[in-house]
Amino acid sequence: MNLRKILISISILLAITVIALGSFTRLTHAGLGCPDWPGCYGHATVAQIKTETISNLNIDTTKAWTEMVHRYFAGSLALLVLVISFINFYNKKNIKTSILLICTIIFQALLGMWTVTWKLLPTVVMGHLLGGFLTLSLLWFLLLDSEKFKFQYNIPKNTKILSFIALITISLQIMLGGWTSSNYAALPCLDFPTCNNHLFPNIELMKNFFTAFNPFHTIGPNYDGGLLDYSSRVLIQLVHRFGAYINLIIILAIVISNYANKNYSKLNALLLSLLILQITLGILNVKLFLPVFVAVSHTTIGVLLLLVIIALNYFNLSKKVNLTQ
């Protein structure tokens, strides 16, 4: 494995770690552990903050360290992406993807700053999460594209269509997950599969749709803990669950469609395993009142599901793929 592939592989692991750390930061209410950016109370590390300052401002050093560690990992990822992009430019490979990666990283840095300075504005928080997923997806594409596959068999048309639909629905589900998290709508329902005796949103709840999914929140208020009313959070949670049901059906359809294709046997097994694990973690989030480890795992498995679907679409469209290798 050459240096470029090693760096891309490391960056993928780092990107997954950054997303997981972002989830942990969110779940432990540490997003405003440092109210300034990029430092923490004007310092590069929490350790540099004077004891009297910590006492006078009542600083929670645990939350501050949580936020700063997340920033350190994100900064390391940004530097690594720049190195990979430079190597790509030098070797004249994946130029467009590299440019998009750099633009994404720059915008991610801005979103990271706005997340703090705009006090966890839900639209910015969700955008920051999506930017992390996009960064990871682009790096994953670079790794897939660096492999030397050979195209040896025809892929059924229905598999291609289902895989593309799954990519869209999972991307939308990630957006819903980000919106659920940023509006603290993970636990307005304490039952499953129903939510306060509702399986799907009813007409009364749908009246809150434009409130629940309004992306134009006011800049200024502190959104830590969420400002939406209870009914709006219930609606967000129900829509998120409805999206999960749709993804369940589509992914099962892919597995069934590919069942007879031996080239997809390992990929099918992985896809089905991740799906079962993700559903289990989602149910446990409700039944156990959102424990941090389970919630972070739910986000991480969602990441892996996306990567598998991206790989499936890549295999379906590429002319150099041989899954038997």
Can you offer a commentary on this structure?
This protein has 325 residues and is mainly α. It has 2 domains: 1-147; 153-325, no CATH class. Helix content is 68%, strand content 0%. Helix 4 (95-117) packs antiparallel against helix 5, helix 5 packs antiparallel against helix 6 (157-182) and helix 9 packs antiparallel against helix 10 (265-287). The chain starts with a helix and ends in an 8-residue tail after the last helix.
How would you describe this structure in keywords?
mainly alpha, 11 helices, 325 residues
Radius of gyration: 21 Å
Tell me the major beta sheet. Answer: none
* Share of helix, binned: 55-70%
- Sequence of secondary-structure elements: HHHHHHHHHHH
- The coarse overall form would be globular
Strand runs, count? 0
Query: What structural class do you assign from the helix and strand content?
Result: mainly alpha
Strand content: under 5%
* Low-confidence spans: none
Number of helices: 11
Mean pLDDT over all positions: 91
Distance between the termini: 16 Å
Count of structural domains:
2
In short, what is this structure?
The protein is an all-alpha fold. Helices cover 68% and strands 0% of the residues. It has helices spanning 3-27, 51-57, 61-91, 95-117, 122-146, 157-182, 203-206, 209-212, 230-257, 265-287, 292-317.
